[in-house]
Amino acid sequence: MSQDHKILLSEKEIPRQWYNIQADMPNPCLPPLHPGTKAPVGPEDLSPLFPMELIKQEVTRERYIEIPDEVFNIYKIWRPTPLFRAHRLEAFLDTPAHIYYKYEGVSPAGSHKPNTAVPQAYYNKQEGVKKITTETGAGQWGSALAYACHVFGIDLEVYMVKVSYEQKPYRKTLMNTWGAEVFPSPSPRTQAGKQILSRQPNSPGSLGIAISEAVERAAGDPDTKYALGSVLNHVLLHQTVVGQEALLQMEKAGEFPDVVIAPFGGGSNFAGLSFPFLRHKLKEGRKVRCIAVEPASCPKLTRGEFRYDFGDTVGMTPLIPMYTLGHSFVPASIHAGGLRYHGAGAIVSQLLKDGLIDAVAIQQLECFQAGVTFARTEGILPAPEATHAIAEVFRQARQAREAGEARTILFNLCGHGYLDLAAYEDYFNGNLKDHELTDQEVKEHLSELAEYPLPV
Amino acid sequence: MSQDHKILLSEKEIPRQWYNIQADMPNPCLPPLHPGTKAPVGPEDLSPLFPMELIKQEVTRERYIEIPDEVFNIYKIWRPTPLFRAHRLEAFLDTPAHIYYKYEGVSPAGSHKPNTAVPQAYYNKQEGVKKITTETGAGQWGSALAYACHVFGIDLEVYMVKVSYEQKPYRKTLMNTWGAEVFPSPSPRTQAGKQILSRQPNSPGSLGIAISEAVERAAGDPDTKYALGSVLNHVLLHQTVVGQEALLQMEKAGEFPDVVIAPFGGGSNFAGLSFPFLRHKLKEGRKVRCIAVEPASCPKLTRGEFRYDFGDTVGMTPLIPMYTLGHSFVPASIHAGGLRYHGAGAIVSQLLKDGLIDAVAIQQLECFQAGVTFARTEGILPAPEATHAIAEVFRQARQAREAGEARTILFNLCGHGYLDLAAYEDYFNGNLKDHELTDQEVKEHLSELAEYPLPV
Q1: How near does any CA of chain A get to the CA of B11, in Å?
Q2: Tell me, what's the pLDDT at B442?
């Protein structure tokens, strides 16, 4: 057991491959379906939106995918990221638990998002794409892709969820710094945006709506493709550099975690840290509990249903087998903008259905309180998304104390909160509220899925 | 010569001592003078403001001062900081120069400031101090001290230069997160503030004014002391952890810098990086050029005079031998708030007078342009203060290209700019201007010093 605060790796220890959990799942993911024919989609259905290499990565069952040298060289800008032992937090919580966190906030965009933005931009460049469109919630994904597109010389058009665009104006400036164009969504630039605005002129927007806009723009232009920051299998794949590094770092610390915790929006944050650990559970039966933490105001994993549903709000994407609250569900305007998504990616949904991972939903006030305590003990101000993991860590650490167990806890500190200080200001001023969904609200949106096939 | 992007150290390699350049200066600093008697001040004159251990560190000529274990353990939260080789920037500038940067933005406050905030809070705690007052410009120092005071359980009252308080509201929230009280300066809470406000109700404030306010509050209460974020000898001393680490890291990279560059406000940023290198020049005659970069709108090193002057605006501090523009000089409201100070610390002033270091002044538009290029190549958005060093690096790299020389350049990337995006937004929107001082303006403020002794 290390007494050091930081466990660092050398650049030689950055993974050379991504880990694909599809090789090890006891039950494979169900295929996505074409929204019209309801038959499984093939590569040609996806090719207007994605470069062929990413479509291959979406479906392959190869266990390891080589990381191209060009991507590896950009990873070296911020990777390997540090792993910290939270000695001061442990003392504050008076817990026998050992708490470790992987810190992805050292990347250019300040979160884990560049791990997939860089390879996505790279493969698009390889296939001659001139422009990419995307959506962004809190702006983490948009700024990561802005950086990556700048590196490879690709234009970028970002649809930013309007409530975040207004709450976090500086994320827009950061995207502009890397040369991207940013529009608040819903916007009048697309049919999808116009349709939403005509029904609800003051719509705060949602990731689902912004996806509809970005997809529509890409589908209409042969030189333009679309990129998604979470949910899809290839996105989760790229994020496994996080967990592979953490596995090695935990080994250097002389420990294996009993519990691995990460925030949950569409799945890539959680998958990135947990899948390389989950592999040891799937292949060797090692005991490790992987917990996805979602906001109580957007509880697809804990209160949604496993259904075929659209990835976007308007219904332009293939139908994906996912835990969902229904694609028309617009989450409350909480500050963890990156977690305001109605559904969960196919892989994570299958793993949850098979009982291989756990999920918990936490209200935002508990999360912000945990975030402030974390900043006061460990010195890093966490992004609102990351505070969801921290709140669950606090619960686990208290359970460990009550049980008198030296539980080892690892979590993903997926980003810093220096661009989220308006949220903390609101919290300190008592302007934040918790949001409880009624069963009726949950039911209502799910009932719209009646016409689509059940995943079996 | 390393091909790696990062040169990292282990926690065992964090310095255990601070380096005191006063042991190696060919001409010692002149003593500070009492503003009334104009005789050299003694420890008892300073004891209402500072704990005795810091007063000792201010004047000692011991070469190395032990870092207390309690401080070392907090340093481990973010130290050692990384040193980067800027391969991508070198390629962009098409220069044969090797460019390295020490990155202090990984600290809790996002800058080098906690390096001295933590020991200052520690020594105050040791001597039973209950409350500290301080000034802050851009808010970097205030947030660093807020963090440090929280760690050691001391109350903190911050006077924040009004223009920065308004430009950078989120720094206030960060200080609040660590439990500090923050007031825009000039404020009606002090005689000094009232005096300024009565003459100039819309005063944008300055570091000099904020110092007057903080000093006044501390002087009036026996349980309260004052802390300064730069200028003083003990502050420069604490920052030498930066340069000592960088020296070791450059050694690991197999190089010794020809040029060491840092932004200049009061001197601690520049001293922290350069003094451990300068020691090799002073003791072994190694060739290294140390360049302090100040804003052209606040050019005390390049256009000021070496005079006895006050550290604050109202004239409450001892008279310090410094390059100064006069204590009544209020710099233009540029975004590099941390550099808006009328004078330079005594040590740096003596070194400049003795021709041992160099200084250059650069306009803010050139700095912001360099900062954007840096963000686009190296991925880190620099603080406006840090862009001053970067602009000079660009000049040096271009000179190296023109001369066909493989010059080795090291600079201090003293902080990130994630809390300064409003400044970048202004830059992109064309709202920033350069500020050229007339000779008349410089003369006017200096003429007020006629009544004070000349430093000889």
Answers
A1: 7
A2: 92
Is there a contact between A321 and A32 (Cβ–Cβ < 8 Å)? Answer: yes
**Which residues in chain B have Cβ-Cβ distances shorter than 8 Å to A379?**
77-78, 107-108, 147
Give me the CATH number covering residue A445. 3.40.50.1100
The 3-state secondary structure of A96-123, one letter per residue = CCEEEEEECCCCCCCECCHHHHHHHHHH
- Domain assignment present for B219: no
- Whether A34 maps to a domain, the answer reads no
pLDDT value at A48 more than 50: yes
Per-residue model confidence (pLDDT) at position B125: 98
Judged by CB atoms closer than 8 Å, whether chains meet at B108 and A380 is answered as yes
Integer Cα distance of A71 and B16 in angstroms: 38
- pLDDT by 10s per residue, chain B, length 456: 457 899 999 999 999 999 999 999 999 999 999 988 999 999 999 999 999 999 999 999 999 999 999 999 999 999 999 999 999 999 999 999 999 999 999 999 999 999 999 999 999 999 999 999 999 988 999 999 999 999 999 999 999 999 889 877 899 999 999 999 999 999 999 999 999 999 999 999 988 899 999 999 999 899 999 999 999 999 999 999 999 999 999 999 999 999 999 999 999 999 999 999 999 999 999 999 999 999 999 999 999 999 999 999 888 899 999 999 999 998 888 888 889 899 999 999 999 999 999 999 999 999 999 999 999 999 999 999 999 999 999 999 999 999 999 999 999 999 999 999 999 999 999 999 998 899 999 999 999 898 898 888
Q: Which residue has the tokens 């001295």?
A: B116
For chain A, the domain total comes to 1
The sign one gets for the Cα dihedral B127, B131, B137, B140 is positive
Chain A residues whose CB is inside 8 A of the B249 CB are none
The phi and psi torsions of A133 (rounded to 5 degrees) equal -115, 150
Residues of B with Cβ-Cβ distance to A380 under 8 angstroms: 108
Within a domain: B226: no
Between residues A386 and A436, the one the model is more confident about? A386
Within 344-403 of A, beta carbons closer than 8 Å to B belong to 372, 375-376, 378-381
What are the CA-CA distances from residue B381 to residues A106, A292, B365, B376, B414 (Å)? 11, 31, 16, 8, 11
Give the CA count within 13 Å in the CB-facing half-sphere of A51.
19
Residues spanned by the domain of A379 = 3-13+69-110+240-449
pTM, two decimal places: 0.95
Residue B316: inside a domain, yes or no? Answer: yes
Q: Where are the alpha helices (DSSP H) in A102-189?
A: 114-126, 140-152, 162-167, 169-177
